[in-house]
Specification:
mainly alpha, about 90% helix, about 0% strand, membrane, transmembrane, transmembrane helix
Length: about 40
């Protein structure tokens, strides 16, 4: 979250690979949030 400009240039260079990575991270984050809500 801190180095947005560097990450942005990185993602634009590797869009095809980054797309799948972003989806995986989003699914992981949603899973973690749901787990915290359920177990809290």
């Amino acid at each position: 979250m801190q180095k947005q400009k560097e990450d942005y240039s990185f993602w634009t260079k590797y869009k095809q690979f980054a797309g799948n990575e972003i989806m995986l991270y989003i699914i992981m984050v949603i899973g973690i949030i749901l787990g915290i809500i359920i177990f809290s």
